[in-house]
Amino acid sequence: MTAVRKLAPEVPGFEDRHPTGFVAVARLAGIIRPNNVDGGPWHAAGSFGWRLEDVFALPNPVSARGLQRLWNVPADLEARILAQLPRRYHGSDLGDGDTRRLNRQHDRVREAALNWPGGWFTMYELARKLNAPEASVERQVRYLKEERFGGYAVEKRRVEGANHFEFRVQGKGTQLTF
Questions:
Q1: Mean pLDDT, rounded, of the chain
Q2: Which helix (H) or strand (E) holds 26?
Q3: Residue 39 has pLDDT above 60, yes or no
Q4: CATH code assigned at 165
Q5: Looking at 63-67, 78-82, 84-88, which range is the least confident one?
């Protein structure tokens, strides 16, 4: 509670209540094992922890009752949270469902491309592995180069003796991605 008190000392009546709710969203980037000695300043030695990346503080925290386990966020709360996230995709004809679908597709393409065995892949291979349209996968790979999608290094080379290209995605993204 001390850390929260430091973050919100100006909240009237803070001492009398225990505020709960969503204050940020993040991407789960890894698990910290109990035997990890360098889990960071917030990791309790001897316990599991989560390594979070792409953390985005919500401008308007969403009140919710907390639980001491993983749980599904009710649709009304999810909508209030998602409404505050920066939009990665733009277009007057895109609805919330489109944005969620494109974000999921982007995350799948990014993870598959970054972890491709041997590094180099063709768009056909990546699309086939993800069971997604090749044009959609190609667009998502191109997005990876943009700052709003992480600013990854995307390399391209011609396949010797063929009329197509291979790609490789490297490097850690430097910007928030949602």
A1: 78
A2: strand 21-32
A3: yes
A4: 1.10.10.10
A5: 84-88
Q: Taking the mean position of all CA atoms in its chain, how far away is CA 158?
A: 31
Q: Where are the alpha helices (DSSP H) in the chain?
A: 2-7, 75-82, 96-114, 123-130, 134-143
> 92: alpha, beta or left, given left = phi > 0 and alpha = psi -120 to 50?
alpha
Strand pairing class (153-158; 49-63) = unpaired
Domain that holds residue 117: 96-170
The number of beta carbons lying within 10 Å of the beta carbon of residue 137 is: 24
Among 39-48, 121-130, 155-164, the range of highest mean pLDDT: 121-130
Q: How many angstroms separate the CA atoms of 51 and 28, rounded?
A: 6
**Dist CA 4 CA 18 (whole Å):** 10
Task: Give CA separation, 88 vs 30, 36, 73, 161, in Å.
Answer: 23, 35, 22, 37
Instruction: Answer yes or no: do 115 and 77 share one domain.
Output: no
Q: Which residues of 81-93 are buried (b: 16+ CB within 10 A; e: fewer)?
A: bbeeeeebeeeee
Angular region, 167: left φ>0, alpha ψ -120 to 50, beta rest: beta
Does one domain contain both 24 and 75?
yes
Kindly report the pTM of this predicted structure: 0.52
